[in-house]
């Protein structure tokens, strides 16, 4: 159970608030778009951290939930349904339901089998989406328009960024809160030692399943936002297993089991890719080096280490 | 005559070709400390696992407080009042010592899906966890991370976690194992204070502890009960002496 020192927590809140406010006030179109992407991928990384950091399970299938959120939003938009207050709950609910079903089967296994089963299910969705001609098949499709939220349009990049940031912060605070409540305690107890937790009456399987479904819902919400940001959906962009793996990398970069570490990791990952891909096509190699450096050199996670450097 | 809290009837467990439990029938009275002794490989931990639910018997029945628990899940048994500790202490490593028994308190309810109120602010939960910690005498280490505790302290924290579940029957698998001289004495004293509360079934190799603490001693060998009775009778039982205690050992 990771509790950061109060000074670090206050620092994070100040920096995050300042960054969001500054971007919302002064960001240009490109910056707002990039910041929205960080918020959305950060949200998806938080979803992965719920499962990885708190349940101790490596899921290589979260692209399925992200992609479902995006595809349901896109498919409904094609049919002319764009009201977010109706479409978004349907998309998120679909992702959660898929997570519930996949989780119910995958959670009967553990370790490497869990990884392979989550990957296998996600690949089924990937190839399934490739085979639906009405949704553009492998080429994907363009959304006719963005969702509206209670009738208000989201076409203004500033408004869209503020909404994405607000959703991210709200989910983050809620998940953080839940991690210290009975649910979070029991889930982490099962992660630390599931034989001990069972002997104390903790229903490991049901807890993990609930966590997996919640995680799927959060990833689905990120997918909804992603579809609205890019207005373009293809299996290779929202359902590919690369996405699942990148989300894991983000969580590990920032530090698993802290939730906001996932957001920090997403920001660093996307910034690295953005910068390095200007110079070379082999950006993945440099991101790989960054991950190795992070794991070997900064074992307590970036934030705790930064604080140590500052106070030392 | 009071009815037994726990009764096993002809419990058999086959693991591969081996009959690890071979028709074990024991009875444990409420509040009793029932020690199970026997040489390595006698099936002591296997028996404990079948009472706790970590293993399901191949044949036979286990009745706890009038309820047939033979094939009940570990969690349901825990909520019915069967708590336990393990041979190698199991703790929640990333939790503080005080948060370990808090999990034991949470597990008493079938649903631990509270998403909002922090566990440390669930007053009854926090206070019961603290109480369990001081019952085993490690309240001063409450804030330490469990993974940083000594072997002996981990064992105490695990007992606190089991006690926090308010068991009526507590299964202790070698509570003295790996403890130093002072720690063993401390554990003995602790077990003495716990007597008369929950009934205890204890697997143990420390004969001093067994014969000073137990109300009943059951001797297992090759998966069978070879003797069961009061400590003074077991000590002088010729069959037990030859098979386990050693003929010239005054234990």
> Got a strand count of chain A?
4
List low-pLDDT spans of chain B.
247-251
CATH architectural arrangement of the largest domain in chain B: 3-Layer(aba) Sandwich
Largest sheet of chain A: 2 strands, antiparallel
Largest interface: A-B, 27 and 40 residues
Instruction: Give me the strand/helix succession of chain B.
Output: EEEEHEEHEHHHEHEHEEHH
- Percent of residues in helices of chain A comes to over 70%
From the 3D coordinates, which CATH architecture of chain A would you assign?
A: Orthogonal Bundle
Report the C-alpha radius of gyration of chain B, rounded: 18 Å
- Widest sheet: strand ordering of chain A: 1-4
CATH topology description of chain A:
ABC transporter involved in vitamin B12 uptake, BtuC
| Overall shape of chain A | globular
CATH topology of the largest domain in chain B: Rossmann fold
Distance between the termini of chain A: 25 Å
What strand line-up does the widest sheet of chain B have?
Answer: 7-8-9-4-10-11
Query: Distance between termini of chain B?
Result: 31 Å
Total strand count of chain B, please? Answer: 11
